Amino acid sequence: MTLAIRTGAVDVHYPEAGGARAALVVGDLPGFTVTVERVVWLDSAEPYEPGSFYKRELPAVRAVLEGVEPVRMLIVDGYVDLDPDGRPGLGAHVHAALGIPVIGVAKTSFRTATHAAVVLRGGATKPLFVTAAGLPVPEAARYVTGMSGAYRMPDALRRVDALARGR
């Protein structure tokens, strides 16, 4: 018997006019059918700082998680760590701040992230790149592969992206 893991997926969008829109969808893995949606607007956001993206993202991630039943795992758009030696990316900072497992799903290859699991979904020829903290990368890749949706991007990740962009 497989136990359901209450999982959130988060994404943040930064409109040109300023501020940030953070979105969260919640569902259970395996599968991850969305059962909760939440969007939070932040009037201000830290400026983009290369190598320190988490300083911009983490306040928005915390804000959108406030007021919802806690999740046991989180999926972020991007890498958990940026190389096999563990140079932290957004997901590693989220894992350290929240103390829960984090799966990173990136749409593009990062040259030093040679440790990322390559996942093909829905007949796509272009892969997703999966990294993780708090659980083994192969397990994270299995979760991403098994998420609902017929396309390259799982439905939950497509939905949270659309919410963050205000669609």
Itemize the secondary structure elements and their pairings.
Blueprint: E1 5-13, E2 20-29, E3 36-42, H1 53-65, E4 73-77, H2 90-98, E5 102-106, E6 117-119, E7 128-133, H3 137-146, H4 155-164
Parallel strand pairs: 1-4, 4-5
Antiparallel strand pairs: 1-2, 2-3, 5-7, 6-7
Helix pairs in contact: 1-2
Question: Can you tell me about this structure?
Answer:
It is built from four helices and seven strands; from the N terminus they run E-E-E-H-E-H-E-E-E-H-H. The model has no long low-confidence stretch (mean pLDDT 93). The termini are far apart. It is globular. Helix 1 (53-65) packs across helix 2 (90-98). Helix content is 25%, strand content 27%. It has one domain: archaeoglobus fulgidus dsm 4304 fold (2-Layer Sandwich). Strands 3-2-1-4-5-7-6 form a seven-stranded mixed beta sheet, sandwiched between helices. The protein has helices at 53-65, 90-98, 137-146, 155-164, and strands at residues 5-13, 20-29, 36-42, 73-77, 102-106, 117-119, 128-133. It is α/β, with parallel strands linked by helices and 167 residues long.
